[in-house]
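Dear support,

I submitted the protein below through the web form. The confirmation email said the job was done, but the results page showed an empty box. After a refresh the structure appeared. I'm attaching both so you can tell me whether what I see now is the final result or a partial one.
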Amino acid sequence: MGFLLAHALALGSAPRIYDENVRACIRKKYVILPVWFFRPRWHGQIPLAVLLWRDTVCVGTLINLVASFLALAALALGAHTGLAVALHFAPMPYNIFLLAAVLRLQADNTCTTIIAVAWFLVMLVI
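What the results page shows now:
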């Protein structure tokens, strides 16, 4: 894994790394993949359009639809209701993170706020 990661970094196909600690961990073959995804979004290093439309609306909705489908499948197969509820709400921490990241990044953009909050409320139901 570290070998492939080093070559991906050399070719420029891996996400850009903004923290020297992460670079040091990669050199030592400690791969910290969640840091690549969450840190740039939290610190506003991802463009707002990418964060809102690709990460939140497209990927977030897909994750929520898969979780809802799994919850309904579990109910159809006779699983406990608590398991279905847990499966349905499993993406909620990710949804909260995306909403918070969008709200932190946008600079007094009412349209972005409305879209992000509406998406979050719809994902509570779906």
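Response: this is the final, complete result; the empty box was a page-load delay. The longest helix spans residues 48-76.
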